[in-house]
Structure formats: C-alpha cells, structure tokens
Design brief:
The chain is mostly helical. The protein folds into two domains: 257 residues, no CATH class; 70 residues, no CATH class. It contains twelve helices and five strands. Helix 1 runs antiparallel to helix 5, helix 2 runs parallel beside helix 5 and helix 5 packs across helix 12. It starts with a helix and ends with a helix. The relative contact order is 0.12. It binds zinc ion. Zinc ion (ZN) binds next to loops.
C-alpha cells in the first residue's frame, strides 16, 4: 500500500497531468480553428499567415506547459523535503530547435501532399489536422519533460527520475514501449526518451521516496488484470525497447529492431524542397477574383456545398466509429463546416444579386 508521502506525490502528479491535458485540449481547439477554417492551401502568403497564428498559439501554450511542469517539479520536491528557490523562467526556445514559422507550415504541406497523392479535400484536411496534432503533442511532451528535469537537477537530494505512465490519459491503453520502460531509472544527465503520442510524465527519485515506481506498479497490475490474463504480460515480456536520437525531437523510444533513422541519416535526409504551390484546379484565383461571372460563382458554390456535405459526412462517420468529438480531425471538420456555410451563404447571395 502506498505510504502517505507517495499518496500526496501521486496526487500532485495526477493533478499536473490533468492540467497538461487541458492545456493540450485548448491548443488543439486553437489549431483546429486555424487549420480547419483555412482554405488557401496553395497560397504562400495565406499559409504563412496561418503558420504564424499556429506558432503563436503553440508558444502561448508551451509557456503555460513549462510553468505547470516547473511548479509541479518544485511541488514534488517540496513534498519530499527539498525546497527550491524560484527562478525566473528562461526565455522561450522552441523545443525542436527549428524555426516555428517553418515548422507550422507543415500542416499545409501535409494537405498539399495528400492532394498530390490523389486524396480528396476531406482526407487532406484530416492529414493536415493530424500533422498539427502530432507536432503540438510532441512539443508539449518535450517541453514538460525538460522543464521538470531542469528543476530536479537543481536539487542535491534527487538521485534520478522515473517515467510515470498514465493509463487514464490514453484511450487505446498505455503503449507497451512505455510499460516496458516504466521500471527504468534515469539519471539526471539523460533525457527520458518519448515517442509519438506518449503521455508519460516524470517523478523524482530521492533516497527516501520513489513515487514513480509505486505509481507504475499499481497501474501495471490494473492493466494486466483488465487485459484479462497473461497474454499481454507475455507479449510485453518479449518486447525490448531502446532509444535513438531523433534530429528534432531528441531521444525517442522505439522497440529493438524497429527501423529508424540514425542521427546521421536524419541529418542527411533533408526536407524536400517546397513544391510549387499552384494547383492546377485550384479555386483560389476564382475566390479572389473581383468580377466573377455567374458560372464562376456557381462553380464556387457547388464546391463549397460539396465540401460542406463531405465534412458533415466525415463527422457523422467518425462519431459512429466511436471517435471522440474532441479528436482534432473532427474539430477541424467542424471549423471547415462553419467556413463552408459562410461561403455557401455569400455565393448564394452573390448569385441572387447578379
Ligand atoms: Zn509514454
């Protein structure tokens, strides 16, 4: 059974991951409104404007994440009997060490790539939204981890730290990689490797307390009994994990034998040059045109109506498939729906006035 100290540390860890989940949800909503409401995928200026909005939304969220993580780490240390004097926060640096404005053009790149591969607008929007979601989640996870470890490093009592798994945050269950890595003790010199969709947080290990270990043991026992037997345990016993240094994301957790890029390969693989943005059948010019004729406006109206119907269908299908309404691609469709409703109204009005 957990002792009193571990229980209070557990509460702090859970409260903090809850706050972080809220910050992520708020950021996802912002990103959905920016990219879901977006339609100038082939217009460099428009893409840059949207990227700037997304970068600003992310920067604001990461500042909050960093604050929450720092104060959580300090609170965990305070409870273990170690007080840290508060330092002013360091200037915001992007966790990937890349230009955030270029980073945040990637959702548009994902949209255009999907179209170039023969996907329709609805599928391409989902690709853009998913790219945005992946970027944001990874950046939040790295930022939170780094902020906490920075605090741990300032305490002489902290010997190292441990990964804390969060089954309550992942619908599909904690990934096996994290369960296998859950008994690993990290030194303060190393950065705990994360992976795509990782919800893990960290807990300090001191001479007299190791809350992460107890927290994980409890969760893992529950996960095993919920899985109804030994299959998962055996699967996990066979799973070996390792990590590699990702060019942008730093240490990344993978299973042994899984193919990945070495740092050299990652460095050698340059980002593809920006493709010419102009699409053959783009309605962009038509939308910007001052004196459209009725046939042109009708074409825009038809396209908007088609997109509107497709988004609604995609929302309905995703819900029927049991996807959460908070899923970023659904949120993107909701904003796309709003955008196309406005478009349909204005094109209809334009046709009537003609
Ligand atoms: Zn994880």
């Amino acid at each position: 059974m957990a002792d009193k100290l571990t229980t209070s540390l557990m509460k702090t860890v859970l409260a903090s991951s809850g706050m972080q989940a809220q910050l992520i949800a708020a950021l996802m909503e912002m990103l959905a409104s920016i990219w879901g409401g977006f339609e100038d995928w082939y217009e460099p200026d428009g893409v840059q404007r949207a990227a700037k909005l997304a970068a600003e939304a992310e920067a604001a969220a990461l500042t909050q994440v960093r604050r929450t993580a720092s104060s959580t780490a300090r609170e965990l240390l305070r409870q273990t009997g170690e007080n840290i004097t508060v330092d002013p926060l360091e200037a915001l640096e992007h966790p990937r060490g890349v230009d955030p404005l270029e980073l945040w053009e990637r959702p548009a790149e994902a949209y255009r790539y999907a179209i170039s591969q023969g996907k329709n607008d609805t599928e391409a929007l989902a690709a853009a939204m998913n790219r945005a979601g992946h970027i944001a989640k990874a950046d939040v996870a790295i930022t939170a981890r780094d902020a906490q470890i920075r605090e741990f490093r300032r305490s002489e009592k902290v010997k190292g730290y441990r990964r804390v798994i969060h089954p309550e945050l992942s619908k599909s269950g904690v990934c096996g990689l994290c369960i296998v890595a859950a008994d690993r003790l990290y030194s303060l010199k190393e950065l705990m490797p994360l992976h795509d969709g990782c919800n893990c947080t960290v807990a300090p290990v001191t001479a007299r307390s190791d809350p992460g270990l107890k927290l994980n043991q409890q969760d893992i026992e529950e996960l095993y009994s919920a899985a109804g037997g030994s299959t998962r345990r055996e699967d996990l016993a066979r799973l070996r994990v390792t990590s590699y240094e990702h060019g942008e994301l730093g240490p990344t957790l993978v299973r042994v034998g899984q193919s990945y890029l070495s740092p050299e390969e990652a460095a050698a693989r340059k980002r593809p040059p920006k493709r010419h943005l102009r699409a053959v059948n783009s309605d962009t010019d038509l939308r910007k045109k001052k004196n459209r004729n009725a046939a042109e406006t009708q074409r825009l109206l038809d396209t908007s109506q088609k997109k509107l119907d497709a988004y609604q269908k995609a929302i309905d299908e995703a819900k029927a498939a049991g996807k959460s309404p908070d899923d970023i691609s659904i949120r993107g469709y909701v904003y796309g729906l709003q955008r196309e409703r406005k478009n349909v109204l204005s094109y209809t009005k334009e046709l009537k006035a003609a």
